[in-house]
Amino acid sequence: MDKVHTDLAKMLAAGLFEPFIRYIRFPRFRGLRDGTRIEFMHPVTVLVGPNGTNKTAILRALQGSPENANLGQYWFSTNLDPIRTADRHRFIYGYLAKSVGEVVEVVKSRITREGDPDYWEPARPILQDGMQRMPPSKPGDPMPPERTATRWKAIAKSVVYLDFRSELSAYDKYFFHVPSRRKSAVLGAKKALIRKRSSHVARSLLTRRKSHTFYQSERIVQPAVTLDSELTAAISEILGREYDSIQILMHSYFDVQGATVIMRSLDLRYSEAFAGSGEFAVVMLVKSIAAAPPSSLILLDEPEVSLHPGAQQKLMAFISDQAKRRKLQVVISTHSPQIIRGLPACAIKVFQRGETDGKVDLVAQESEQSEAFFRLGVDSKEKWTVYVEDVLAAAIVRKAARKLGQAANSRLEVRVLPGGAGSIKAQFLPNFALTERKRCLLLLDGDQRPATAPGSPSAVPDVDLEKAVFELLQCKVTLPLDGSSGTSVPGQKESQLRQVLSWCDSNLDFMPGSTPEALLMDMEGLAQAADPKSEWLERTRQALGREDWEIVTSSDVLSEQERALAPVPDDCDQLQWVRDRVHKFLQEDQ
């Protein structure tokens, strides 16, 4: 274990992190198996698992733990996603009440109250959930500060929640995500507005004014600040680039609330409009953690987004150091092996879906890194592994490969990579390529197939390598480049890009059809539906005799798809193509 984590463990044992959420348990909550309990045994905890394993839901429950926090702001019932009142979703957590010297429990339940059907509030102890009755209070005795007459009070703890999939600058929010107004139907009008109003942004940055009314609206959300030298150095270390100064202004000059960041590096000065998304995300993370009060609860949802593996490791070093220095409790949701690398087993919580009912299980309260790597699908060393995007694609590959015989299948594994196609292409693929993972075949869905077939990697000139990789993958890949001041070691970037192209030439291919759902319907000989996913949902609903208002789970849909897949002839063209591709993969000299 790294020294910082050894120190963190000792500090936690000495009671230096109080108030500290010791555990959280879920008698009934979303897709988690009833009764799931998560122990927080280390100041830094990481939640690991494929998409759909309720990691974000757990973070939101933790965010809703303090007294005046309401989970209903983030999870609420709609006609599309109804929450049944009869299910009585709730969660319970424990913390040390110092006045009585023992861990007490707080329950928060979803209730319906006037004007809000999705309100979450603390409640009296629920005995059927294993909670203890409140100890009687003697007349005249002072009430412990952690309780009322009927329940224990919610924990008094500041919370910082950052979702890095949606951490966008003011410029990005307005230019790329706000629908054009009727009179501003083209991007040119948005450019004109940004040009016109950026003078006010610049003025607010220069003067650090605390207030500015523009078009009858207050535009300063938080006055401009310049990060101190320590935080600037931390950002420089994480990103591998030397920054002289970093300014941040929270404003709404572009008619959306967001941040503008001005970065100075050597003789360069630029805003978040020209910075990478990883730069902006790291700046906001460092600022938010630094601004959080001591002993805060820090919740980070996929902080690895847009960061290459080296930056991810340095980010974790910063987070762990801040946890130690400022006694922060940190909980992180991640798909990245780099985020969990170096953590003790008690800090790693691995989740998986049950094979029969689709409920989410916690594998163990302590998991070694190897277990987490296995669940992430990146640690196969002995077998030849076919990686796919989802469970239906995996079922199709397994059916196709079954006819290759027992010997071939004994050497073969089929795994689902978490995070979706974008995450797979941007992060997992370059990691496979640059670590020379030869015993794996990445089979993406057919809708990820490039418009034109790439040429020979050896024939691509150095100046065209980045373009060739982008045309093949339709995204920028994260590369572990060395160097500082915005530059990498000469030739390193080109070498890594060529290595990615060469790996893709041998180890990347695309399934027939557009999506697994559409492919299965094609193999059945059915006409293609406009929305295959919705079609499978409706078929499952009918097969189970469910009403429109009843919930149909992803596990129900998969079961129906597997029933439809079973009678598909093994010699159909689509299965034969998959079988031939897997056979070719197994026959390659590894």
TrEMBL record:
SUPFAM superfamilies xrefs: P-loop containing nucleoside triphosphate hydrolases
Pfam family, one: AAA_21
Superkingdom, natural source: Bacteria
Domain ATPase AAA-type core: from-to ranges: 288-340
Protein's name in the database: AAA family ATPase
Organism: Micromonospora cathayae
